[in-house]
Amino acid sequence: MAFQRFDPPGFLDDFGPAQRDAWHQFISDAMNSAQEGSGDPFDSPRAQFFNAAKVEAGPNPAFEDVKWTAFPRIVQISSGSDMERWRSADASRDVQDEYCEWSVTRQSGTNKMTRVTFTCEGPEYWRFLAATDPTQTLALYKQHVDASATQADLFTPSGAYILRNRFNNSTSNGAMHLVQRNNTLGAEIEIAGAATVSRLRADGSPMVDSLELIRCGRYGAEQRHSDPFIGARVNFHARSKADVTVANPVGIYFGGLDTQEWETPDGSDPASFWKYTRGTPERPVRAVIEVPSDRGYVLGDVLIDGRAIQFGGQIADRIQMTIRALATRIGQSTAQPVRGCVGDGAGAAGGPGGPLSVSAVLSAGDTRGRL
User: For the chain: N or C, fewer Cβ within 10 A?
Assistant: First the structure.
């Protein structure tokens, strides 16, 4: 397999040639940084993680779509009932931390739900797009969120993009991209890189449990659905003595909606209400669910497990999120497992930017939207 040129998430076509070059360089730099590790002697370098732009993947790579539930597990385990957790998850984007965030539209008068928009687009992508093409940024907001959006809604007087602008800061007024502080593409790449270190317990046996691995490697948050499971699956491939990376295009994607145990007033298939509106069908980054206007009912009249849909969280319960891992040269790695956990060393690693540097753009972002 030839050296990889990194595409935008979901093979999006918002970028021109110079932007695409810069995005490729940004992802390549992030891969390099993840391979270098933190500098801790029990974490660096991560010999089994590789940058496919620098190291060929080789023939016959194996792919795995690593999936997890979109509903925030931290909210789930801290709530006393389904109604409490659904209400809590719908109250703030800051608790929607499984790389999936949503916004709910309701019918005036009845307050019934009519539409829910879900996004898994990384903030890095949007900050870079906004800095390099404000006109396209506004056009996409008009298309996908609100036709009334203006330049002043999205940008400060000095021209800086407002990450949490009024059309992207709540669960009721639109959702263009992720804003929860842990929901970033950089976090995805770093977790995958850190999880490629095979680790041994004190007795010499391999660590295999997802919580044991995330605690020892100190990557991500152990209370989430996503981080421990991503780490465990990547580590599985590393223990198979494979070289591992995140497959192109690097991103978080929707892995599907389970509509079993849903009931519609007219008996129609509720899966037909679920539409992907950005990305490819195989790598979607934006989804909308709503009942067509000619049906005579709205989303709030649909039942899940016998309960009317009142919250976006009820739908998030049934959504799968995914990243794609790539494993190659299986059984060939000579990297030795590490006996020890992160925390006994110190250090840092980083990567350079390109001629048009996404990293430089992100580091110059406005303080209201800083990651």
Answer: N
Closest CA to 315 of 257, 276, 264, 254: 257
pLDDT of 361 reads 55
Using CA atoms, how far residue 83 sits from 58, 129, 143, 304, in Å, is 49, 38, 33, 13
Locate 360 and state its tokens.
């430089």
Total residues found in the chain within this entry: 371
Phi, psi of 339 (to 5 degrees): -100, 95
Let me know if residue 2 belongs to a domain: no
Tell me what pLDDT residue 137 has: 98
Tell me the two tokens of residue 198. 């095979």
Expressed as residue numbers, the domain containing 189 is: 9-37+44-343
Number of domains comprising the chain: 1
Q: Tell me: the pLDDT tens digits for 250-290?
A: 999 999 999 999 999 999 999 999 999 999 999 999 999 99
Q: Is residue 367 part of a domain?
A: no
Confidence (pTM): 0.92
Q: Residue 150 class from Cβ within 10 Å (0-12 exposed, 13-18 middle, 19+ buried)? A: exposed
pLDDT computed for residue 370 by the predictor = 31
Cβ contacts of 108 within 8 Å, gap of 6 or more: none
Is 197 contained in some domain? yes
Whether the bond between 270 and the residue before it is cis, its omega within 30 degrees of 0, is: no
Instruction: Read off φ and ψ for residue 256, nearest 5 degrees.
Output: 125, 165
- 357 within some domain: no
Q: Answer for the pair 10, 283: CB distance below 8 angstroms, yes or no.
A: yes
- Count the Cβ atoms, other than its own, within 10 Å of residue 211: 13
CA distances from 284 to 22, 210, 211, 269, 347 (A): 22, 27, 29, 21, 37
